[in-house]
Design goal:
three-stranded antiparallel beta sheet; 14 strands; about 425 residues; alpha/beta
Length: about 425
């Protein structure tokens, strides 16, 4: 967007936020290609009408030269005639290329006082030494001031309260069978992942709901239902997504997951459903997302390290010919590890998003035992949840998964975006 159009929007921001009904211009901006559906959904998640208007103005400035005139047209079409006239009445705003230099009122620091010592050194030179202070430097005790006690270092970080019974809700979305028109393969082995995580979170005292084979709109609907639920009696909320994924660049959380119809839902939008504005009953409470899906279509072949660095896990080979992918590419080997990927060109507090793979790369799944990430996560949670916090356990998962190989050559590196403010421990039975 031109600088002068940005200036016009910024100068009239107060009027736009006060008078604009964003819901009346969404369709017009969508039809003109200024915003995508995901962008509109993200603006809607901003909260109140005024909050949506503020975000719309902010996002509009990043949408190119056609965004401003298209916005004005949408204003006229939607009955915001006064706002449209206001924006068009502003002439070109010029910004001075240079500003006059004003005399500084801040004095330059004075050099330390000096005096000349021993003027007759015989070589015509004189030694310059600093003048000694006229007054002695007094300590606080000399002045009768009691020294301020040093601040004690806090011994540990606080922990989230996890005392509710049950402790929270857990939604698992398991997409296995994809529509033929989506060009996405079915995710054999995902039911194994789903069953593992259902049992694991039930053991952590969560109310678990499993939804299978959801389209894009159905994923959003289930998240909306979860968002509108009263979580006042709970201490936490968990969302698990098992699906194909792809790259998607957003402000905070990258990546997107596919519905069985092939349409993507960005991770950013999914987290927005549970943020403090959208779901007040979860304010200050941990909201955990576990994403078993690809972050893109790149395959990581890794790099060589010293044998002492890793305890290598053997490459996973398959004896079953019916697991051979139908593609004629080099990936069509007798292996059960399949990438959860679709080949495409790629202020939240108390939220943690754990990704099965690094953004931009594929995530591997074994048709017989489930995905590397979920299999490892479940094992680590089983062995360590009694003693370790979640972030520590996720680092264990990273280490374990990084040592597995697919087809003897491909690697995977999980990771997480952590906006938690405290340590998180699951409810466990210590018996």
């Amino acid at each position: 967007m031109d600088a002068r159009h940005k200036n016009i929007l910024q100068l009239n921001r107060t009027s736009i936020v006060r008078d604009l009904d964003p819901s009346k211009v969404y369709d017009g901006l969508l039809s003109r290609g200024i915003f995508t559906e995901d962008m509109v959904e993200e603006i809607k998640c901003a909260g109140t009408r005024r909050d949506q208007a503020r975000k719309l103005v902010k996002d509009l400035q990043m949408r190119g030269r056609a965004a401003f005139p298209a916005f004005v047209e949408c204003l006229r079409e939607s009955g915001h005639q006064t706002l449209a006239d206001l924006l068009e009445s502003r002439g070109p705003i010029t910004v001075p290329t240079s500003l006059p230099v004003l005399p500084s009122t801040v004095p330059f620091p004075r050099p330390h006082p000096v005096h000349r010592e021993n003027p007759d050194r015989g070589d015509g030179s004189q030694k310059l030494v600093p003048l000694k202070p006229a007054l002695p430097v007094l300590s606080p005790a000399d002045e009768g001031i009691t020294p301020r006690p040093s601040r004690q270092r806090r011994e540990s970080i606080q922990c989230y309260k996890m005392e509710a019974n049950p402790c929270g809700m857990c939604l698992i979305i398991n997409n296995v069978d994809f529509h033929p028109a989506s060009d996405l393969k079915n995710r054999t082995g995902s039911d194994i992942d789903c069953d593992k995580l259902r049992k694991r979170f039930e053991s952590f005292n969560f109310c678990v709901t499993v939804k299978r084979n959801l389209r894009c709109k159905e994923i959003k609907h289930q998240l909306s239902v979860l968002s509108s639920t009263d979580h006042s009696g709970y201490d936490c909320c968990v969302v698990v997504i098992l699906s194909h994924g792809t790259e998607s660049n957003n402000n905070r959380f990258p990546g997107a997951v596919h519905g069985v119809d092939g349409l993507p839902v960005s991770v950013q939008i999914m987290t927005d459903y549970l943020n403090g504005k959208r779901c007040p009953s979860l304010q200050g409470k941990p909201k955990l997302f576990f994403i078993q899906a690809c972050g893109g279509d790149q395959k990581d072949t890794g790099f060589e390290v010293s044998p002492d660095e890793v305890q290598p896990v053997g490459g996973r080979m398959d004896e079953q010919t019916d697991a051979i992918p139908s593609s004629s590419s080099s990936d069509s080997l007798s292996l059960t590890d399949e990438p959860d990927a679709r080949a495409t060109l790629p202020t939240p507090s108390d939220i943690l998003v754990s990704y099965s793979t690094f953004p931009g790369y594929v995530s591997w799944r074994d048709c017989n035992t489930g995905s590397w990430y979920v299999e490892t996560l479940d094992c680590i949670l089983e062995m360590n949840a009694v003693t370790d916090d979640l972030v520590t356990m996720l680092m264990m998962v990273n280490d374990e998964v990084s040592q597995i190989s697919a087809k003897g050559m491909y690697k995977q590196m999980p990771g997480s975006f952590n906006f938690l403010r405290k340590l998180f421990y699951f409810q466990t039975s210590k018996a």
